[in-house]
């Protein structure tokens, strides 16, 4: 199977079996999504979704969050990984959005990565989910799944993975392909014991082909 054929197979499979894939983070607007994504770094979406309602109740918009103190916000995210840093990042993010962006969450990657706690992956998530821009956020799931299937070749960094995926996925499908790969990695192509027996991508998967050859 050529690389072009592999991409065609994988995209067709997901289009058929997961046409409405979307983020599992619960949010109502760009502000809430940005807070949730910042909190989600090295933390499960389930835990984030348990935590954000109290934050949004007390800080319903970026203006309210910009006035928060560390001591007031920290108890609300104590159960999240790296709560000290994330508390500082959320307050700093909100203050910069208010001061530099007139209270509007930026809509471009270069602007978003200026915000505290926002790296390339987070910026790609926001622009992809909110604005359906053709940006590919590469987390551990996307990195692992892409390499296992063979969508990427010798990609050593998230950026290398991102660039290879963008080169081969049609622009109009990039924003949903991000969710396809994340969810596949979260529930099927899991890290330690991938569920190859129930995976519909086996005909196109290099990892599975090696398993068959070795057996």
From TrEMBL:
An example Gene Ontology molecular-function term: 4 iron, 4 sulfur cluster binding
CDD domains: ENDO3c
Matching SMART domains: ENDO3c, FES
Keyword tRNA-binding among record annotations: no
Cofactor(s) demanded: [4Fe-4S] cluster
Stored InterPro entries: DNA_glycosylase (IPR011257), Endonuclease3_FeS-loop_motif (IPR003651), Endouclease-III_FeS-bd_BS (IPR004035), HhH-GPD_domain (IPR003265), HhH_base_excis_C (IPR023170), HhH_motif (IPR000445), Nth (IPR005759)
Residues the entry annotates as binding [4Fe-4S] cluster: 189, 196, 199, 205
Cofactor binding, per record: Binds 1 [4Fe-4S] cluster.
GO biological process, one term: base-excision repair, AP site formation
Catalytic activity reported: 2'-deoxyribonucleotide-(2'-deoxyribose 5'-phosphate)-2'-deoxyribonucleotide-DNA = a 3'-end 2'-deoxyribonucleotide-(2,3-dehydro-2,3-deoxyribose 5'-phosphate)-DNA + a 5'-end 5'-phospho-2'-deoxyribonucleoside-DNA + H(+)
PROSITE patterns: ENDONUCLEASE_III_1 (PS00764)
Record EC number: 4.2.99.18
Keywords linked to the UniProt accession: 4Fe-4S, DNA damage, DNA repair, DNA-binding, Endonuclease, Glycosidase, Hydrolase, Iron, Iron-sulfur, Lyase, Metal-binding, Nuclease
Boundaries of every HhH-GPD domain copy: 39-187
Domain of life from the UniProt record: Bacteria
HAMAP family, per the entry: Nth
Annotated family: Belongs to the Nth/MutY family.
PANTHER family listed in its UniProt record: A/G-SPECIFIC ADENINE GLYCOSYLASE/ENDONUCLEASE III, ENDONUCLEASE III
Physiological role: DNA repair enzyme that has both DNA N-glycosylase activity and AP-lyase activity. The DNA N-glycosylase activity releases various damaged pyrimidines from DNA by cleaving the N-glycosidic bond, leaving an AP (apurinic/apyrimidinic) site. The AP-lyase activity cleaves the phosphodiester bond 3' to the AP site by a beta-elimination, leaving a 3'-terminal unsaturated sugar and a product with a terminal 5'-phosphate.
Name of the protein this chain belongs to: Endonuclease III
Lineage: Bacteria, Pseudomonadati, Bacteroidota, Chitinophagia, Chitinophagales
The encoding gene: nth
